[in-house]
Amino acid sequence: MSSFIAITRPVSQALANCELSFVDRQDIDIQLARQQHQNYLDTLKKIGCEIVPAPVLDEQADAVFVEDTALVTDQLAIITRPGAVSRRQECASIAALLQDYRPLAHIAAPGTVDGGDLLLIGQQLYVGLSARTNPAGIAQLQTLLAPQAISVHTVRTQGCLHLKSAVTALDDETVLIQPKWLVDDPFQAYRRVVVDATEEHAANALRIGTHIVLPASFPKTAERIQHQGFTLDTVDVSELQKAEGATTCCSIVFKAQTS
Ligand code: CIR
Predict the structure, then answer these.
(1) Residue 22: band (very low, low, confident or very high) from pLDDT cuts 50, 70, 90
(2) Is the model's pTM score more than 0.90?
(3) Closest residue (by CA) to atom 2 of ligand 1?
(4) What is the per-residue pLDDT for 258?
(5) Per-residue pLDDT averaged across 42-53, rounded?
(6) How many angstroms does the Cα of residue 211 sit away from the middle of ligand 1?
(7) C-beta separation of 129 from 154 below 8 A
(8) pLDDT at residue 166 tops 60
(9) What is the mean pLDDT of residues 130-147?
(10) How far is the CA of 117 from the centre of ligand 1 (A)?
């Protein structure tokens, strides 16, 4: 049995109509996007994930970016209410899968939360206050997570889509960080790996147990991560990056069993 579950969803036919906030629209090669997504799934399997596929949603351009639809803790799955109206129909099919693994809770209007704004490190949940995640959503997270003793910290971002565009965790003591996209920086007490200056989007790394998965387009930052002793896999996700995605956004990864 695999140690981790990874919920994923195939690339939609409509990916070219994706939401874009901080990157310019470019042509997306949909076949290449699908091949890259398959390579991403193969990497997750190699690391020890069981892939649980959500149904394809060909009308929902951004549906491959399942991370934004849920936060899974050891005890709960919180189904979000994405900030982009175009993305809200993605949640129901994710909830249908997650109910087999965790009790469900839901973010309700007027709250909005994108999973890309949620960085859980141990018992600390850092939440990006962004164009996608609002104070009402953050307040609901606080209420839902208090029984698990998870503390919620609001972090203002600037110039990027989500908190996890600016910072992710490499382990419980170490963050990978792009400081210029953080207005607040509550990460001073962590060991910090700063992205290479020529790779400004490189702070979005997927952590699965002791493995790190980074887009292949950031070799200098990859070297910095490996230099700190982390086990790293890289995946070419160029077509998904054109849709403002990277490696965390294409999966919801959680421990297969609660202990
Ligand atoms: C969006 O703007 O919603 C999508 N085009 C990209 C979402 C990427 N999500 C993520 O990094 N968590």
Answers:
(1) very high
(2) yes
(3) 19
(4) 55
(5) 98
(6) 22
(7) yes
(8) yes
(9) 98
(10) 10
CB atoms within 10 A of CB 210: 11
Asked whether 224 and 203 are in contact (CB, 8 A), the reply is no
Measured CA distances, 121 to 36, 67, 207 (Å): 28, 16, 11
Note if 18 is an active site residue. no
User: Cβ of 224: how many Cβ atoms within 10 Å?
Assistant: 17
* Rounded CA separation 138/158 (Å): 17
The per-residue pLDDT for 2 is: 74
Active-site entry in 37, 162, 201, 211: 162
> In the predicted model, is pLDDT for residue 5 greater than 80?
yes
Phi and psi dihedrals of 17, rounded to 5? -90, 20
Partners of 174 in beta bridges: 171, 191
Cα(235)–Cα(181) distance, integer angstroms: 24
Of the candidates 122, 207, 123, the one whose C-alpha atom is nearest the C-alpha of residue 172 is 122
